[in-house]
Automatic annotation (TrEMBL):
It is found in: Cell membrane. This is Gustatory receptor. It is a multi-pass membrane protein. It comes from Drosophila hydei (Fruit fly). Belongs to the insect chemoreceptor superfamily. Gustatory receptor (GR) family.
Length: 413
């Protein structure tokens, strides 16, 4: 893409993640941002971030209340199914609740959060100075730009066009602020999930780099023991960073996963379970509303589905790369036999590996690996079938009642 030629190549980890950190800060989910090659966090940054979050919550509540009071919106809402209205109301409540939990949780872990990036930057510096590694920060930054810009265009377009069509182009002074507030409230937790994936990817990249260094032909004889101890310390530090990431993101990821599960199930039910209602509708307005609603929900579902399907893959890859590093370290005794210092180092690594079983987790028990994808998909499909069967049973009951009334009218009772 031509735009990348105008973007300065990042020279440090802080410049590499400055885009996602600043967007996260603007959305009120963190109390720090990058400035001058480091992260800045003080009472003023936290106050600004909290103020933006509170304004988004108050703004969404005020604009929704103003929209509901308009005659046009009341007519449109009466055309929708009551179950669909209940799902929409539940989505607004759950989104606001998850946003508040995400904001408070990440703000409470601000110092630990900043320390994760600081330790990563120190590891990068050590890799560059001691082992001559080349960190391709530009590739990671370009990936962030592509993903965030694509999601922003789709999400902003879907929300704004959906609300504008719902209001038929009227009351734009209310619709546009409502859309922006909703985007901030829902986009903050979604972006937090992407940042978690980015951290897992950054750790996986460094594990792969250490694997390239941990080769017999690259381990030079001069100062061998010092270099090996340095590599062992870096592998351990990266694994400890996984534990730090779990502490920072445990509550946030658990709430986000619960919200994504509820949202995906409800939206799939509206899309598939209510499509027959649209095809049978004889009212042009109702049909237009149904098609517009399904298009809006289909686009909005892309973000939670992407998170639930891709995040476990990044986490699993990071853990696998870390295990490969530990396996290579355990082979040092075979590569350099007869060295008691290296033998003792290998034994300490094996004891450490038995003591620490490190995995990415959500909450305190859910392990984020590839099995989560199968679990999530099966649960969503099962609940979707239950909701659709419930709706079909309800429709069948209504048809039976209509037939009974028609039969009574025909008999003359």
């Amino acid at each position: 893409m031509a735009i990348f030629y105008f973007i300065r190549e990042p020279g440090s980890l802080y410049e590499c993640v400055t885009l996602i950190s600043r967007v996260q800060f603007v959305m009120g989910c963190t109390g720090f941002f990058e400035r001058g090659g480091r992260f800045v966090s003080n009472k003023w940054t936290r106050l600004y971030s909290l103020s933006c979050a509170c304004l988004a919550l108050v703004g969404l509540s005020a604009t929704i209340y103003a929209l509901v009071r308009t005659e046009l919106m009341r007519e449109r809402m009466q055309q929708l199914d009551k179950l669909v209205l209940s799902i929409m109301a539940m989505e607004l409540v759950l989104s606001s609740l998850v946003f508040v939990i995400t904001m408070l949780s990440l703000h409470s872990w601000t110092q630990r959060y900043v320390a994760i990036y600081q330790q990563l930057a120190e590891i990068d510096k050590q890799l560059i100075v001691d082992f001559g590694a080349r960190m391709n920060y530009g590739k990671v930054l370009r990936k962030h730009i592509v993903v965030l810009s694509t999601v922003a265009v789709l999400y902003l377009g879907a929300v704004n066009m959906g609300l504008a069509r719902l209001a038929e182009g009227h009351h734009l002074e209310i619709v546009v602020p409502a859309a922006l507030c909703y985007i901030i409230i829902t986009g903050g937790p979604h972006l937090t999930g992407f940042v978690h994936m980015s951290l897992a990817e950054l750790l996986g990249i460094r594990f792969r780099l250490l694997q390239q260094i941990l080769q017999p032909q690259r381990l030079l004889k001069p100062q061998l023991e010092r270099r090996l101890r340095s590599l062992v310390d870096m592998v351990k530090q990266l694994h400890y960073l996984i534990m730090d990431i779990n502490d920072v993101y445990n509550l946030t990821l658990w709430c986000a996963m619960a919200h994504d599960f509820t949202l995906s199930t409800s939206e799939l039910y509206i899309i598939f379970g209510r499509s027959s209602d649209i095809s049978d509708s004889n009212q042009d307005v109702g049909e237009t509303m149904g098609v517009m609603l399904m298009a809006f929900l289909s686009i909005c579902m892309l973000v939670p589905v992407y998170k639930m399907l891709i995040a476990p893959v990044y986490c699993s890859r990071s853990i696998e790369e870390g295990r490969k590093c530990l396996h290579l370290l355990e082979q040092l005794d075979n590569w350099f036999p007869g060295n008691p210092a290296i033998k003792q180092l290998v034994e300490s690594i094996m004891r450490w590996r038995l003591q620490y079983k490190i995995e990415y987790t959500s909450g305190r028990s859910t392990v984020l690996d590839k099995t989560v994808i199968t679990l999530y998909t099966s649960i969503v499909c099962n609940y979707l079938l239950v909701l659709i069967s419930f709706a079909m049973t309800q429709q069948l009951g209504e048809q039976v009642e209509q037939q009974k009334v028609a039969l009574q009218d025909w008999i003359g009772i």
